[in-house]
Write a structure and sequence with these properties.
This protein has 14 helices and two strands, in the order ααααααααααβααααβ. It is mainly alpha-helical. The radius of gyration is 21 Å and the shape is globular. The termini are far apart.
Length: 317
């Protein structure tokens, strides 16, 4: 029984829940995350998305089990390896998805619940069809990140900056195409032919195409985030801080100070993909690569300090 529970937890992929912290983005950048109602609504949204995303992973692994058994790494997944019976996986998936929708409808709101429905339908369509369509497979994966950001806005009743949405799209594309590039590298290490057995689209992705898309997404992310910092910066500073600052620094674009963190983070992720030949699992990369993890932590602290300690107001649009 303990072993079955352990396999269920493995299949739920708690590490992947890191993606769901993007639900807090809208409230964080709007300066409303410290409001009690906004914070707890965002936490509820986080829990609901963790449940429904884990339910989607169960279904995905059930569908992919035959191909996963031919993959050098995925063959060790609980369902593919036979450690978790398929019927238990189906029950777990149904319970998680049903609970998420019920909890959302009763505690968060109809718009957020509709977003959950869109997310699970998208995940099912990916598992059944889009995963075998070149380029579309990466776009659907990237859409999952974008949906999370908008879902956080619905949950916290917060307007989402247009530039924040565009930045999210850039990061999502970078992670999605980077994931494909790393998958090709990983499979090629083990076999010349396993890419056809494990994922049809991998053999149709030219390396040059993936490299071009990754480069485009990286550039797009840095540009859109830089423009976002102009919009999201505090318009004036607190009276305590302004009393010790020179006049030219009392109304600057403070959020621009976080741009170097983003540039380094993007560059470090590219290094991980091309030199360390990792990146198949972005959340594993984040937790295992100390420079990248430190960058994310410092960026988060800087954003929080600029948004909540410096200002008297934030401009959004």
């Amino acid at each position: 029984m303990i072993n079955i529970l352990y396999q269920i937890i493995r299949t739920a992929r708690p590490r992947q829940w890191l993606k769901n912290f993007s639900l807090f983005a809208a409230a964080l950048f709007s300066g409303r995350i410290l409001m009690q109602s906004v914070f707890f609504n965002s936490v509820d949204a986080f829990l609901a998305f963790c449940a429904i995303s884990s339910g989607a992973y169960f279904i995905n692994d059930i569908i992919d089990a035959p191909k996963d058994r031919q993959h050098p790494v995925k063959k060790n997944r609980p369902i593919a390896s036979g450690k978790l019976p398929v019927w238990i996986a189906w029950v777990s998936a149904i319970v998680l998805i049903a609970w998420s929708l019920f909890f959302s409808a009763n505690n968060i709101g109809s718009y957020f619940t509709f977003t959950l429905v869109v997310y699970i339908v998208m995940q099912l369509s990916y598992s059944l069809y889009f995963r075998n369509v070149i380029i579309m497979d990466s776009l659907v994966v990237a859409s999952g990140f974008v949906i999370r950001v908008f879902a956080g806005g619905f949950a916290s009743n917060t307007s989402i900056s247009s530039w924040l949405a565009l930045t999210t799209i850039g990061i999502s594309l970078l992670l999605a195409f980077g994931k494909r590039r790393s998958e090709k590298t990983l499979v090629s290490k083990y076999s010349e032919s396993n890419d056809n057995a494990t994922r049809k689209t991998l053999r149709h992705y030219p390396d040059n195409l993936l490299d071009s898309m990754i480069s485009m997404a990286a550039t797009y992310t840095i540009i859109t985030y830089s423009l976002f910092t102009f919009q999201a910066s505090p318009q004036y500073v607190s009276s305590e801080l302004s009393s010790i600052l020179p006049s030219i620094l009392r109304s600057p674009k403070w959020m621009m100070l976080t741009i170097p963190f983003v540039i380094y983070g993007v560059a470090r992720y590219l290094y991980i993909i091309y030199e360390k030949q990792e990146g198949e699992s972005p959340e594993r990369v984040l937790l295992s690569d100390r420079p990248l993890l430190l960058t994310v932590v410092l960026w988060s602290l800087a954003v929080f300090a600029i948004t909540y300690l410096i200002p008297g107001g934030i401009q959004n649009g």
